[in-house]
Prior knowledge:
eight-stranded parallel β-sheet, alpha/beta, 35% helix, globular
Amino acid sequence: MTGTDGLRRRSAGETTVALPSGAAMPVLGQGTWGMGEDRREADEEAAALAAGLDLGLTLIDTAEMYGEGGAEEVVGQAIRGRRDGVFLVSKVYPHNAGRTAAIEACERSLRRLGTDRIDLYLLHWQGRAPYAETIEAFERLRQDGKAVDWGVSNFDLDDMQAWTGEAEGGRTATNQVCYSLSARGIEWDLLPWCQDRGLPVMAYSPLGQGRLLGNPALGGVARRHGVAPATVALAWLLTRQGVVAIPKSSRVERLRDHRKALDIVLDEADLTALGQAFPPPRRKMPLAIL
């Protein structure tokens, strides 16, 4: 199904997307950017992640960069004893990419996470290591069962074309980029390209770091549905086929708001109002990167 904006729409009720490997990834999860930076807050952060899991937000996204491994340790604490019920995503620094370094970095992440596998392992952004070497390392990790799937983050269309053009590049499972109502640049070419290839897109900072939540049009749609503006902002993203949203919060009440995005259905009037308040791109724009 294609909407009036030309982008494919997700069917109502779908709670997972299929990776090219066939694995199912939840469409709504939890981010961890900013966690693990203060050990005094680790227990509270882990408890929030665990509460999100209890609500059904079973995808957790993290990275070795976040808190220099501290976020991965928080995640490890949160998933202890319930690993099999979690879809786990982590990312490798560009300076740790490459034929050998990426494998060593993944093994360090596994130790911090307290698990034997990462469901989806991503190159955080482009670096100096040749794509072919990083892909080779990712394939070794996949073959060894340490990374079930692998992909990239912060890649624009030309980067995706170069990456997937490498040998085994077709195994790429996702591209994680900044995408929200207030950052729609990927809709010009990157998102349609990924949709055409059945390649899911993970939307980080899906609430615009909170800045878009005071928008009057967004507030009006939220009031009509009796939910928080954050719920509507996430539900809007989830109308896009193949898009996964990973909002971050350490407050349980906000996690409940996030979870409700799976339950509401935005109608054409809602989508029109949001499209007028947050118009789609009219030209190619630089990839938003935070």
